[in-house]
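ARCHIVE CARD
CATEGORY: sequence design from structure
SOURCE FIELD: tokenized fold
FIELD CONTENT:
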């Protein structure tokens, strides 16, 4: 079935499950990711109803210090639907990607402030700070961020330290380097992720 709207196409076949400007074709990494999603929909009865109307808008491979991570970009309007199945979906995709970590990030756009002197306002959610904060939440989801600190080095550079919920220690500890590499790839900012101390 091929559905076309607003200059985009969405293919649902044995080969693809994606949204991309017409008539260009997706890159190999995106094809592999969309094929994996289609295979899950076809073979996993538990995920099939939830994946029926979901698709990705892009995929990126990130080198996370000796291991690879696959970043799947999803349309912002579908983020809530993806999050309902994200833990199960990520677990199944990591099996298909031979142990690569999988991270889902919603597409967001930064809106520049008006530069022509007009008193036009922009949504808070479109500022650079808000977008980077939202990306941080996407990268570590479903783990929650419980604290942040910014450390300034002697050379003037700075690094952000991010503390994650200790309740998710078992799931998060193995992906700390991945979180840092993906966040830097998407925002250009250096961040060190740690699991916060256990509450006594």
């Amino acid at each position: 079935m091929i559905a076309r709207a607003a200059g985009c196409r969405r293919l649902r076949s044995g080969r693809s499950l994606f949204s991309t400007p017409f008539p260009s074709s997706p890159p190999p990494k995106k094809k592999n990711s969309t094929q994996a999603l289609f295979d899950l929909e076809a073979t996993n009865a538990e995920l099939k109803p939830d994946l029926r109307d979901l698709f990705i808008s892009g995929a990126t491979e990130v080198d996370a210090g000796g291991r690879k991570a696959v970043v799947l970009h999803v349309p912002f309007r579908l983020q809530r639907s993806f999050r309902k199945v994200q833990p199960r979906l990520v677990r199944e995709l990591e099996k298909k990607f031979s142990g690569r970590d999988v991270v889902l990030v919603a597409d967001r756009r930064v809106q520049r402030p008006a530069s022509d002197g007009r008193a036009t306002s922009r949504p808070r959610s479109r500022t650079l700070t808000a977008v980077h904060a939202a990306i941080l939440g996407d990268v570590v989801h479903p783990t929650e961020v419980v604290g942040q600190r910014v450390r300034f080095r002697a050379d003037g550079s700075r690094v952000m330290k991010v503390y994650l919920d200790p309740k998710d220690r078992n799931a998060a500890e193995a992906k700390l380097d991945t979180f840092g590499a993906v966040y830097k790839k998407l925002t250009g900012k250096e961040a060190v992720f740690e699991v916060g101390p256990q509450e006594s």
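CARD ANNOTATION: The two ends are 55 Å apart (CA to CA). Residues 87 and 142 are 7 Å apart (CA to CA).
SHELF: design records, drawer C
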